[in-house]
Amino acid sequence: MVLHDVLVLMALLLLHVHALDYDFEGYPTRSGIGAWVDADTPLDARSKQSSRGESWDLVMSDEFEEEGRTFEAGKDHIWTALDIPDGVNAAIGLYTPANVYTKNGKLINRVDEVHTNVTYFNQWLEVPAIETNTLVRFSIDEIED
């Protein structure tokens, strides 16, 4: 019985090692456009020449052309807007997916000034614990480039 278990373990280990492929480049897409490159990205933006003469290919882009896209968890194929308090530098801001959407071909990050009680796990406390704070969702109406 022990020999059988050892042989099974060795076979599984061999299959696992054989399955590892460190040079895997991914599967080519039918369109010829990288899987993370938006089809609306202009052709001249898909590759650039570096100052050293190397050709660089674009690996990720998003043109935000689809009107009314929302970024709640599971709603978008690339992005997820977080629903968390901002813990950096003792900030009192709160990020929420309801404030991130697309409009007129632009990504909009609307910020509202709303006081909200939020309960969350704060790992940065001297003794990490769950705490409740009144946070402010600061907002600029719409940020556009």
From TrEMBL:
Chief subcellular location: membrane
Compartment annotation: Membrane
GO biological process: (1->6)-beta-D-glucan biosynthetic process; cell wall organization
UniProt GO cellular component terms: endoplasmic reticulum membrane; plasma membrane
One Pfam family per UniProt: SKN1_KRE6_Sbg1
InterPro entries found in the cross-reference section: Skn1/Kre6/Sbg1
Signal peptide positions (record): 1-19
MF GO annotations: glucosidase activity
Keywords, ordered alphabetically: Cell wall biogenesis/degradation, Glycoprotein, Membrane, Signal
Name under which the protein is recorded: Uncharacterized protein
Source species taxonomy: Eukaryota, Sar, Stramenopiles, Oomycota, Saprolegniomycetes
